[in-house]
């Protein structure tokens, strides 16, 4: 009995090592899981569900194989794949979840999210997020030709990279009070998220004296990174990229 969580793979047609590690993980490990949760930033950037490249087809096929074999797969959108939509969900058999979802992990309640919304000091990013999440803007963007969409994304990514360089590491980490507020609002003592690329298990006492745990998933830049849960334990694990 195992439930698996992954995030921040940043898959693209150019990430050969990560793509291979992901495929091996899906075929050899996830296939035996009770469920698989993807907590955002699966893709380096998802331009839209109309992506018909070989790369997009291959990733969709990996999830479809899993869901066809009866493994429930869930997707929380990240800041790099907020344009994943219902067409992707239908083609993969995945279930799209909202920004914050409470799940039952073998009798323990946990709130799961990507993690970007916890970084409340990164006001520049949050303003950007609010803009690109406007339904009318996404409606328009989704109807543009793929070539044009890629061009626009490339330009904005460059602009975003430039602004990110001037931000401190503190600004780009979670705000502790926000973590506690979200956990308290959902009445849980366990939170699981990605985004910050700082894998760790944080145990702390909240301001109302409750013992709480926040687990941060790692990225896949140098190795595969997984949270493996069974009825008795929650373990952050890594997988080497392995043979070429
Ligand atoms: O993922 P990571 O860790 O690298 O960085 C994130 C935040 N960055 C982003 C950037 C986006 O991925 C870029 C997406 C571009 C595509 C947009 C599609 C447009 C169409 C959609 C319409 C529906 O998410 C980063 C955070 C960091 O996490 C840590 O939390 O700090 O935030 C930023 O860097 C965002 C900037 O702060 C604000 C962005 C301003 C962009 C200005 C671009 C201007 C160029 C205009 C050219 C026409
Ligand atoms: Mn992210």
Write structural notes for this entry.
Substrate binds at residues 79-80, 122, 164, 167, 195. This is UDP-2,3-diacylglucosamine hydrolase. Residues 1-199 form the Calcineurin-like phosphoesterase domain. GO terms for molecular function: manganese ion binding; UDP-2,3-diacylglucosamine hydrolase activity. The protein has 244 residues and is an alpha/beta fold. It is built from seven helices and eleven strands. It has one domain (3-119, 173-239): 4-Layer Sandwich (Purple Acid Phosphatase, chain A, domain 2), CATH 3.60.21. The strands form two sheets. Strands 4-3-2-1-10-11 form a six-stranded mixed beta sheet. Strands 5-6-7-9-8 form a five-stranded mixed beta sheet, with helices on one face. The two termini are 31 Å apart. The mean pLDDT is 96. Bound molecules: ligand LP5 and manganese (II) ion. Manganese (II) ion is lined by residues 40-41, 78-80, 114, 116, 195.
Summarize the structure.
The chain contains seven helices and eleven strands.
Which homologous superfamily in CATH is the superfamily? Answer: Metallo-dependent phosphatases
Taken as a percent bin, the fraction of beta residues is: 15-25%
Quickly count the helices.
7
Low-confidence stretches: none
Helicity range: 25-40%
Q: Give me the strand/helix succession.
A: EHEHEHEEEHHHHEEEEE
Shape: globular
Bound molecules: ligand LP5, manganese (II) ion
Distance between the termini: 31 Å
Count of the separate structural domains? 1
Indicate the CATH architecture.
4-Layer Sandwich
Domain Calcineurin-like phosphoesterase: 1-199
Pathway: Glycolipid biosynthesis; lipid IV(A) biosynthesis; lipid IV(A) from (3R)-3-hydroxytetradecanoyl-[acyl-carrier-protein] and UDP-N-acetyl-alpha-D-glucosamine: step 4/6
Binding site for Mn(2+) 2: 41, 79, 114, 195
InterPro entries: Calcineurin-like_PHP, LpxH-like, Metallo-depent_PP-like, UDP-diacylglucosamine_Hdrlase
């Amino acid at each position: 009995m195992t439930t698996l969580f992954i995030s921040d793979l940043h898959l693209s047609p150019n990430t050969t090592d990560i793509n291979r590690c992901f495929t091996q993980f899906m075929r050899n490990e996830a296939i035996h899981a009770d469920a698989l949760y993807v907590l955002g930033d699966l893709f380096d950037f998802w331009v839209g569900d109309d992506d018909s490249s070989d790369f997009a087809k291959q990733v969709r096929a990996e999830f479809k194989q899993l869901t066809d074999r009866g493994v429930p797969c869930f997707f929380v959108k990240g800041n790099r794949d907020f344009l994943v939509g219902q067409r992707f969900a239908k083609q993969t058999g995945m279930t799209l979840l909202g920004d914050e979802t409470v799940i039952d992990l073998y009798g323990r309640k946990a709130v799961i999210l990507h993690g970007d919304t916890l970084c409340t000091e990164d006001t520049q990013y949050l303003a950007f997020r609010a803009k690109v999440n406007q339904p009318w803007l996404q409606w328009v963007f989704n109807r543009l030709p793929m070539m044009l969409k890629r061009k626009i994304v490339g330009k904005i990514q460059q602009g975003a990279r430039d602004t990110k360089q001037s931000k401190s590491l503190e600004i780009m980490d979670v705000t502790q009070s926000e973590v506690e507020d979200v956990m308290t609002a959902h009445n849980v003592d366990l939170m699981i998220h990605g985004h910050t690329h700082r894998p760790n298990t944080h145990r702390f006492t909240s301001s109302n004296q409750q013992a709480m745990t926040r687990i941060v998933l790692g990225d896949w830049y140098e190795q595969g990174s997984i949270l493996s849960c069974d009825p008795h334990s929650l373990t952050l694990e890594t997988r080497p990229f392995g043979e070429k």
